[in-house]
Amino acid sequence: MEGQGVATALAKFTLDYARMKGYQIVVYCPFVVEYIKSHHEYLDLLNHKFQKPERFN
User: Fold this and answer.
1) ∠ CA 36-38-43, rounded to 5°
2) For the chain, what percent of residues have pLDDT higher than 70?
3) 3-class DSSP state for residue 6?
4) Are 57 and 36 in contact, with CB atoms under 8 Å apart?
5) Mean per-residue pLDDT for 28-53?
6) pLDDT interval class at 54 (50, 70, 90)
7) Can you tell me the distance from the alpha carbon of 14 to that of 16, in angstroms, rounded to the nearest whole number?
8) Any alpha helices (H) in the chain, and if so which ranges?
9) Cα(4)–Cα(53) distance, integer angstroms
10) Is 46 helix (H, G, I), strand (E, B) or coil?
11) In 3D, which of 5, 24, 28 has the Cα closest to residue 15?
12) pLDDT at residue 1, as a whole number
């Protein structure tokens, strides 16, 4: 399944769902960290109490 965009689709869906529900997130997955680095529109979802925003620059 590698290279078929499954992880990207899952990350996007999950982040959009979190936004729709008004959730804040803490990211543990390195793939999602990299995804958010290139999709800054999701930075507002990060819970800054538990996560350093510099990680996503």
Assistant:
1) 40
2) 98
3) helix
4) no
5) 94
6) confident
7) 5
8) 6-21, 30-37
9) 29
10) strand
11) 24
12) 59
